[in-house]
Specification:
Layout: E1 5-8, E2 13-18, E3 33-39, E4 48-51, E5 57-61, E6 66-71, H1 73-76, E7 81-91, E8 94-106
Parallel strand pairs: 1-8
Antiparallel strand pairs: 2-6, 3-4, 3-7, 5-6, 7-8
């Protein structure tokens, strides 16, 4: 799933992700480790990583595969430009990329 968006530096943003099977049925993310990573280039190393175990990823309805990645002001303050992100779910020894996209972080006049 690709989900591009634009935001301003230093603002809060919730990125809603819904995980489905190849057949389109909800995939439970209960007891899964979820990772959100952001990089400056698609092939580049991640410079920002958020983990479900650290509270920046919040389950909305885990049984139906729905969660929010919560970007906080400190995650984007002073970070202006086009960035690339990826969301992975790890469960039972398996790992899947469930969302990718681009985020344009624009400068904010109000700090």
């Amino acid at each position: 799933m690709s989900n591009d968006f634009t935001m301003y530096e230093g603002e809060s943003r919730a990125l809603r992700v819904t995980v489905r099977t190849a057949e389109g049925r909800p995939f439970s993310v209960e007891e899964a480790e979820i990772t959100f990573s952001m990089a400056r280039r698609p092939e580049g190393a991640a410079y920002r990583t958020l983990l479900s175990s650290e509270g920046d990823i919040v389950m909305v309805d885990a049984a139906k595969g729905i969660f929010d990645v919560r970007l906080k002001p400190e995650h984007t303050q002073g970070d202006i430009g086009r960035r690339f992100y990826e969301v992975q779910v790890a469960k039972g020894g398996d790992r899947w990329t469930v969302a990718t996209g681009e985020v344009e972080i624009r400068p904010s006049m109000i700090r």
